[in-house]
Every structure is written in structure tokens, then in C-alpha cells.
Amino acid sequence: MRNPQTPPPPVRRAHVRKIAAPLALITALLLRSALPAGAIQSPLPGPISAWSTTPGTDGRVYIADERGRARQFHGFNIKTDDPDVATDELLAAAAERGLNLLRLTIYWDKLEPSEGVFDEGYLDRVVNALDRAAARGIVVILDMHQDVFGPAFGNSGIPIWATRTDGLSYVPQPVWLLNYLQPAVQAAWEHLYEDADLRQFQIRAWTRVVQRVKDHPALLGYDLLNEPFGKIREGEDILTAAARVEREQLTPMYQRLTDAISAIDPDHWVFFEPPNLASLGVPTSLGAVNGPKVAFYPHMYDPSIEVNTYTPGGTVAYNPEFFKTWSTAIGVYPKANPIPFLVGEWGIAQPEANGMDTFVRDSLATLDKIGSGWTVFNWCKGDGYCPLDAAGNDRPAISQIFQPYALAIAGAPTASVWDTVSATLKVELSDDASTGATEIFIPESRSYPGGWKVETSDGPGSWSSTFNSATGVLSVTTAKTSGSHAICVKPAGAAAGCAVTVAPSTTPATGTAALGSSSPAVAPVVATPRFTG
After folding, report:
1. What is the spatial distance between Cα 531 and Cα 514, in angstroms, rounded to a whole number?
2. Which end of the chain is more exposed for a tag (fewer CB within 10 A), N or C?
3. What is the Cα–Cα distance from 198 to 192, expressed in whole angstroms?
4. Is the model's pLDDT at 518 over the cut of 80?
């Protein structure tokens, strides 16, 4: 691997992650030795202050809107130290493709460059980015980001004045990730967790952010700290150290910050991340983090792909066992702590590489199976992790993220499966106390150039639907029968049939569910669709 400031081709510096999942990748190394400018996705949902949670039928917990509908998120990261990079052009391109959530980086060193001196102009630019997102119907999570701790070590994150190294050495490493193991960096993490004054400074920084943005209509919540690390103490290996850091330092830090934020703003979510050991099959040792609205927000990166991305001459290849390893390990925490679960980062830097088409397909299937949303890394135009090329066109493989999905499910979700072969989205739900319609985003030109139709498992006349071509949102209303329902969106010429196939009490299958042999009312869509139930 190389320092991302001098990245290997074809990854360009501006689009390098700099770098995913440091703990997992360091451990892996050690163990190895034409844009419609006015288009928006949908009006801004809300008010988010009235949102809560709702359970699915398989034990998953979803963020629920003011109508009690389970919300799903397909979103993106914008990693930048200048919020003005989140331009209206970029946000419009995301909204037009159905993306509804932005994870936007903020940096403590940019917020508070000198102790007690806050850059209000920086916060103004953050608020302006929220304004632009709101205009495009996109909600925002603010991500307090760090890379190799911060500017004391040539990156961004925790400010120099809050970095304590005990006079230990720091020598930049040719393998960038190993910078985290340098003595000075290790000391800095230890002091951040343990020093009483630094704890209060960290709370003060977050408090300043929350006070500025808490009433913004686009705000969904706060991501407490990107990809945390910690010190390996004498006698520990990296896995033992990670477990201790998570239990004894990271969990208390997250609780401190959650308490402080929630005291000012109980209406928005606090998101928190574990170190990315799940990529190696190691469940997190984080304890419960309690608050009025909290959510689990881990990252998903295949360490083999990431290591080879940053290793000169490395060959990026897909290993299908990764998803079983990751999902088994990461699923332990939300089962023990039933809170909403979204994935904060995932992506690929070489979408043209062999096997990456399958990797993206299986990534999306895995994410749909175990969580309720994701934010892909990174939203930009060019190469590297960018989903769009320099001209703003969809790039291969990663363009699969632009697919139909349910924005809001008016019932307890049982399964939501997109079948790439049949181009069929099937949403299954059971009636609950939610009201309103199930809303589905449909990228017509990408997924259904020949037209599409919607069917349900319900009888003729018992359901209805409308389609807003300006926003690409299909609204389907099913009768409340205290039963289960299936909604299917498929190509116009596909065979009829949309049956409930997943028992509400079971975990949804990852494969394609059979559509069944029943023939419910069908509403074809070819040109300007009109629907009848």
C-alpha cells in the first residue's frame, strides 16, 4: 500500500478514501504479514423531530417517520474539509438518481483551529450545505471525521492543540495505514479517551455544532467519530487491544457525547461506529449506548480489496465469503441492541476491475438483508471511488446503486428484495399502526427503459397507486386487513403474479423470492402511467 497522498494508479488523490477501516486493514496486514439540473428525488421528508422507530417482522429496527412508516435510505458520503464542495450540481445528480441521505464530513480542527476559538464561517458553510441538501429533498448526517488522528500527523481531524503525544516519535510510514501504530499517534488516542479536559473539549466542540444545526429541517443526525482507533498497550495484540478500547474507552466516550448532544437536541439521531473488525469476522465489543435516538452505523469494506487497491501491483478480486464473514460478525450488535442499523461507508475504488460488478450486486443484497440503509463512499465525479465519471455519467458496476427501492414502508417490513436478473423489486410487509402509502423510488430510464408495472398480492379494487413522474416516486396504498401484503414493481412485459412468500416471523431470504401464481390487479406503465387498484 501507499500513502494516499501519493496513491497508486488509477486512484486519483482527490477521490481516495484515505483510507477505509484502518483497524481492520492494519490487522489484515499484520495477519498476512447529462444532468437534469432541476430534478429532485422527492420533497424533504419530515418533520424529523417527530420521527421515532418501528420494528420489522424479522427483528430489525427501522427509523420511522411521523406516520409510523419504516424509512429506508440509499445515500452517499461527501468527504471534504470544505462544505462548499457539496455543490447543488452534485446534490442534484444524487437526488435525480434516487439517493436520499448525505453523510457530510466535518472536522474538529476546522471547527476549532485554536483552543476555544470557533470558526463561525466554517459552520456557516456547513449550514449552507444543509440548505442545498434540503432543496434537493436529501437529509444529512454530520460526520465528525478523522484520518490518522489529525493535522499533527499530516491529516485532518482532532486539532493540534488537542493532540498529546508524550514527546513520542512519529515517522510517516510507506504503508499509510501503519501510521496508526506510530508511538505518537497511539499516545494521542489514549489521551483523547482518558484526559478529563480533552473529554470536555470534545463535548464542547460537538455542542457548538449541535447548537448551530439542531433546528435545520434537513438534519437527520450526528455521526460521533469516524473510524475510531486506540492504543495497543504492553502485552496486548491488536485484537485484544481493540476489544478493550471498545469496551472501556469507546463506549464511555460515545455515551458522554450522546448524553451531551441529546440534552440539547433529543429530536435527532446520534450515530456511532465500531472499529471495522467485522470485516475480519470479529464482532464489536462495544457496549450499549443509550439515548432518546441512537443508531448503529458501521462501515463495510472487504480488507483484501482495500489492501490491494493501495498496494502497488495489487490485484483486486472478489471473494464471496466476505459477505458471510462480515454480516455474521456485524449482526451480533444490533441483535443484542435493537436500534436502527445503517452502514456509513462502503464502496470500491476500481469498479472496472474483474468481479466488481458481482461484488456491488452482492453488497447491495447484503445491505438490504440486514440493515435499513447505507451511504456509499464517495460522491464525486472522476475515478477512484467516484460513482460518476468526469462527465457526470454513471460508471460501471457501482452504477447498480441506482436501483428501485422503498423509501417508506407503510407496515412492518418483512423483506425488500431487488432482483437484478428479472428487474423486479418486491416489498413485503405486515399491517401495523402506520398510516399513509408505501413510497417506492423508480429510476425509470435506468431500470425500466421499456416501461414497468406495479402489482400487489391484494385483490382487485382493494389497493391503489399513483406515480409522480417529476420525483420518480410510486405511492401504493394497501388496505389495512391485519394481514400481510406484497408489492411488486417489474418490467411491463413480465408475467403477472405478486404473492406474499416470506413468513412474517422469519428472517428474509437473500435470494429472489418466487412471485407466485396468483394474478392480482395489474397496472402497466409504459408512457405516462395512470393507476387503478
Report:
1. 24
2. C
3. 6
4. no
